[in-house]
Amino acid sequence: MTDLCIIGAGPAGFTAAIYAVRAGLSVRLFESSLYGGQIVNTPDVDNYPGLPGLSGAELAMKLYEHAARFGVEPETRTLTRVALHGEVKTLYAGEEAIPCRSVIIATGASHRKLGCPGEERLTGRGVSYCAACDGAFFRGKTVAVNGGGNTALEDALFLANACEKVYLIHRREEFRADRANIDAVKKRANIEFLLSRTVKEIRGEQKVEEIVLSGTAGQEEVTLPVSALFIAVGLQPNTALFEGQVALEGGYIKAGEDCRTNVPGVFAAGDVRTKDVRQLITAAADGAVAAIAAGKYLA
Ligand code: NAP
């Protein structure tokens, strides 16, 4: 039986795989879609020590190659159910049952939605959650970005290189992004701030044509003609599969810095667990911690 199943092939999952194999464990790594996790959408990963100037996709490829050197490649499976209690844990992909002795959950988080009219209908028709993926379609156009975190500001900077104008819409006056990103955005002449505003509606027949903004400080509603809206309002943990199996807190898997969940032999690593700092490097660090903890549990 497999010693360790890792669910999710992002930075946490790949790092866990590398550490676990090197510790002598038998490992299987499962991924439901593209490997690499959220970084694949990041144009420049400039804060991973020792690897400046790489794109997220390049870094994802390096993680893949590194794990493959140790004989682990992500297996594409959509897991439909898990049974994590007891000495034998079982993952199910439809009818297929995959038994193992321990599990690391590294399923990360996905883009949060705004939930406003037009968002779902116009997704892929001007509504996007990935500036790096879709920005090039809007070269020379006027677009908007919604959000006040690092993703939104980095998206605005990225889009400002190609688009004529970028509106940066945020629901407060202060940004939660890093100082460096805020300063960089302020220097761009073609980024206009629309603060204390939220997107009320996205309009357009076949594609995005305009967005309606409400004011959070009593300002009048405004309608902006734009070709695209890039939504960067944070993350939602991918934990639906684990509800009722492990303890959750605010939707995240409850686990401390030791990555242990409330279920013996089940560990959580990366953005999916309760933590303060969700960064590439902390996800990778979690992968190492969780793999070592799994090794100790199995011993
Ligand atoms: P985030 O830091 O959680 O920021 C989400 C932003 O969206 C916040 O400004 C929030 O506003 C706003 N927001 C949330 N729900 C909203 C809603 N319903 N309507 C309007 N606005 C809403 O998310 P993120 O930017 O995706 O970043 C996620 C994590 O990755 C963070 O830890 C971030 O630092 C990290 N990250 C790091 C880098 C880097 O270091 N280079 C790059 C990208 C991401 P409030 O501020 O009012 O809550």
Molecular structure report:
There is one protein chain. The protein is of the alpha/beta class and 299 residues long. It contains 6 helices and 19 strands. The protein has helices spanning 11-22, 56-69, 131-134, 150-160, 179-186, 280-298, and strands at 2-7, 27-31, 75-76, 81-83, 89-93, 96-105, 109-111, 127-128, 142-146, 165-170, 191-195, 197-203, 210-215, 222-225, 228-231, 235-237, 248-249, 252-253, 266-268. Strand 1 (2-7), helix 1 and strand 2 (27-31) form a beta-alpha-beta unit. Helix 1 runs parallel beside helix 2 (56-69) and helix 1 (11-22) packs parallel to helix 6 (280-298). The longest helix is centred in the C-terminal third of the chain and has 19 residues, at 280-298. The structure holds NADP nicotinamide-adenine-dinucleotide phosphate. The site of NADP nicotinamide-adenine-dinucleotide phosphate (NAP) has 21 residues, from helix 4.
Helix content: 10-25%
Report the bound ligands by name, code or SMILES: NADP nicotinamide-adenine-dinucleotide phosphate
Low-confidence stretches: none
Q: Main β-sheet, in a few words?
A: 7 strands, mixed
Label this structure with key terms.
alpha/beta, 299 residues, binds NADP nicotinamide-adenine-dinucleotide phosphate, five-stranded parallel β-sheet
